[in-house]
Write a structure and sequence with these properties.
With 338 residues, the protein is an alpha+beta fold. The protein has helices at 3-9, 12-21, 35-54, 78-90, 113-120, 135-145, 169-175, 183-210, 319-325; strands spanning 67-69, 75-77, 110-111, 124-125, 132-133, 150-152, 163-165, 216-228, 231-235, 239-241, 244-251, 260-265, 273-281, 293-298, 308-309, 328-336. Residues 56-101 form the RING-type domain.
Length: 338
């Protein structure tokens, strides 16, 4: 077993203690004149070590979510913890820690609040520019300072539909044609916006109506990398709904800013199954997803739903990098029409 693997199998407390005891400086060592500079350089190194130690043992990412640990102290984020339990339940197996193979369950594992608090003090990644930001500056950067944050044209109230990164707003407004539009064109744009608003209201009314049906369920899932016929795609773990197994699969087809997904039935059915389904952002997710209600009838020979576009409030060129950088938490609601 390599040194890195041995370090990974140690409980988080042991790793932190080992890091603190690493290469101690002699008491008699003189303080060099550029000590302050070295300390500044040491901060990123310390932060990187902490990120490595406190990351989830499954996805190897630093999650700002509930953090569980097995009886030997290995950390698992809430998303991966739920995935492990779900997969084990579907396969009728006992769930185990991916590091030490000890049995894990909701009764045997508990949250490590100290680790959760420590993670919340570490830098956060901006969902638009992917730059690491300190927690105290994160909200200000995301809403006011990030050059790639989503924004709309100042002429939106007179019908300009443009939306895009803040860095392009000034250039757009210099060329915005809406400000020179005549009354008829402005009225036409406003009518279009009014129709879009009505469609949005109808969508929410339909969703609320579906929430009252007898059979519906929701599931918290993670899109993870997978390879299908030499193509890099994203797939969730299998999940059970209405006595059938399902999976979500996604990919980037044409544009790096457009993610497409499919709901796929993995079980055999004897009768058609007409369903509505809806994807929203999952717990602790940075994705802002526009609700889009999909419907499809699954049959014995038709097990794959249509390819749908994941509607985001803002399409960024960094979306592909965002998906490759981490597992994406999503929540799916499924409604069965009887």
């Amino acid at each position: 077993m390599s040194d890195a693997e041995q370090e990974r199998t140690l409980p988080v407390e042991a790793q932190i203690v080992g890091m603190m005891l690493e290469k101690p400086s002699p008491v008699s060592e003189p303080i060099p004149p550029n000590r302050g500079l070295k300390l500044k350089k040491a901060k990123p190194l310390l932060r990187n070590k902490l990120q490595k130690i406190l990351s989830c043992a499954v996805c190897l990412e630093l999650r700002r979510s509930a953090i569980y640990q097995c009886k030997y102290g290995h950390l698992i984020c809430a998303g991966c913890f739920g995935d492990i339990l779900s997969e084990s339940r579907l396969q009728n197996e006992i769930a185990s820690c991916p590091v030490c193979q000890s049995t894990i369950s909701k009764d045997l594992c508990f949250r490590n609040v100290a680790v959760e608090k420590t993670i919340r003090e570490l830098p956060m990644s901006c969902p638009y520019c992917l730059v690491q930001i300190s927690p105290e500056s994160y909200k200000t950067h995301k809403k006011c300072l990030c050059e790639k944050r989503p924004t709309i044209c100042s002429n939106n109230l007179i019908g300009c539909p443009w939306e895009g990164p803040y860095s392009q707003k000034e250039k757009h407004q210099d060329d915005c044609k809406q400000i020179a539009a005549n009354g008829f064109e402005i009225l036409k744009s406003l009518n279009r916006m009014d129709e879009e608003s009505k469609d949005e209201v109808n969508l929410y009314e339909k969703i609320f109506e579906l929430l009252s049906v007898e059979k519906f369920s929701y599931h918290d899932l993670q899109f993870k990398h997978c390879t299908v016929e030499d193509n890099v795609e994203f797939e969730t773990s299998k999940f059970s709904a209405f006595d059938n197994l399902w999976v979500l699969r996604g990919n980037f087809k044409d544009k790096p800013s457009e993610f497409h997904y499919q709901l796929i039935l993995k079980s055999k059915i004897s009768a058609p199954l007409h369903m509505h389904y809806l994807l929203v952002k999952g717990p602790y997710s940075d994705m802002e997803i526009k609700p889009k209600l999909c419907q499809f009838t699954f049959e014995e020979r038709v097990s794959e739903g249509p390819s749908e576009t994941l509607n985001l409030w803002y399409h960024s060129d960094s979306l592909r990098s965002f998906f490759h950088a981490k597992r994406i938490n999503i929540r799916i609601f499924i409604f069965v029409n009887i």
